[in-house]
């Protein structure tokens, strides 16, 4: 299963007011494991920021001068996400902006829902923590994800944090640490994709046996999950521990 953790930054809160995307960040998961492939791109929005928006992102039109317009990066971005499941925090926001950007390029680009499936991590968090604050920062604190380096909103940084949060939120729905795979260095190929490094990996990867050190690390992670859950981790219920 291929998933893309995605985040965007914009010139304002509403695409209906002609606000535009200024940054896209993506992190790829394959079978719930980071593949090493990322997509990151700054984008010139062809308009001014709304008041306050630049302060939130730390971006400015001066910085974005010379960066490509969305039309120039649309095809490579779509090639990166096509066919994947997108995991987005408050997905309606980002999908609305992406659909708006595609609509400006012409009807032949269609809508994101025609290309990808979407899972909203905000809805997952609300189901698990009803009545609580479920912003990305709040979830990082609650789930023990270190976000001390997050001083401003940034699409790739937020996608990386959301990746950790999402794996914590859905722990137990997939493997937790066992049957890990190791990739021979000779099979790795690195390329530049959309201004960010993309690491392409071979599908022919051997399984690695779990040693005592890895088992101890797995148990330490389970203990952390138990503390977060206030009792047994879902792994305990599934495994009968």
In short:
With 241 residues, the protein is α/β, with parallel strands linked by helices.
Protein architecture, described:
The protein is of the alpha/beta class. The chain folds into two domains: 2-208, Ribonuclease H-like superfamily/Ribonuclease H (Nucleotidyltransferase, domain 5, 2-Layer Sandwich), CATH 3.30.420.10; 210-241, no CATH class. It is 38% helix and 20% strand. It has nine helices and seven strands; from the N terminus they run βββαααβαβαααββαα. The strands form two sheets. It has a five-stranded mixed beta sheet. A two-stranded antiparallel sheet has the order 6-7. α4 links the parallel β4 (85-88) and β5. α6 (136-143) crosses α7. The longest helix has 18 residues, at 212-229.
Largest sheet: 5 strands, mixed
Strand order of the largest sheet: 3-2-1-4-5
Question: Oligomeric form of this entry?
Answer: single chain
Q: Separation of termini?
A: 28 Å
Q: CATH topology of the largest domain, which one? A: Nucleotidyltransferase, domain 5
By CATH reckoning, the class of the largest domain would read Alpha Beta
Number of domains: 2
Low-confidence segments, given as residue ranges, are 174-210, 237-241
Helices and strands, in N-to-C order? EEEHHHEHEHHHEEHH
Derived from helix and strand composition plus strand pairing, the structural class reads alpha/beta
């Amino acid at each position: 299963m291929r998933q893309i953790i995605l985040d965007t930054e914009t010139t304002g809160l509403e695409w209906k007011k002609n606000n535009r995307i200024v940054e896209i960040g993506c992190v790829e998961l394959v079978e719930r494991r980071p593949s090493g492939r990322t997509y990151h791109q700054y984008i010139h929005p062809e308009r001014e920021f709304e008041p306050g928006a630049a302060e939130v992102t730390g971006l400015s039109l001066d910085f974005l001068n010379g960066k490509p317009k969305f039309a120039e990066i649309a095809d490579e971005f779509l090639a990166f996400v096509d066919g994947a499941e997108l995991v987005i925090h408050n997905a309606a926001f980002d999908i609305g902006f992406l659909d708006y950007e595609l609509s400006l390029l012409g009807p032949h680009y269609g809508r994101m829902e025609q290309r990808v499936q979407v899972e909203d991590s905000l809805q997952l968090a609300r189901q698990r923590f009803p009545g609580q604050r479920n912003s990305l920062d709040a979830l990082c604190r609650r789930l023990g994800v270190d976000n001390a380096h997050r001083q401003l909103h940034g699409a790739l940084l937020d996608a990386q944090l959301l990746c950790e949060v999402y794996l914590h939120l859905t722990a137990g729905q997939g493997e937790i640490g066992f049957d890990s795979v190791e990739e021979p260095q000779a099979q790795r190929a690195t390329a530049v994709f959309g201004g960010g490094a993309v690491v392409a990996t071979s599908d022919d990867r051997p399984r690695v046996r779990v040693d005592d050190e890895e088992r101890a690390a797995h148990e330490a992670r389970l203990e952390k999950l138990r503390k977060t859950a206030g009792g047994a981790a879902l792994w305990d219920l599934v495994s009968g521990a």
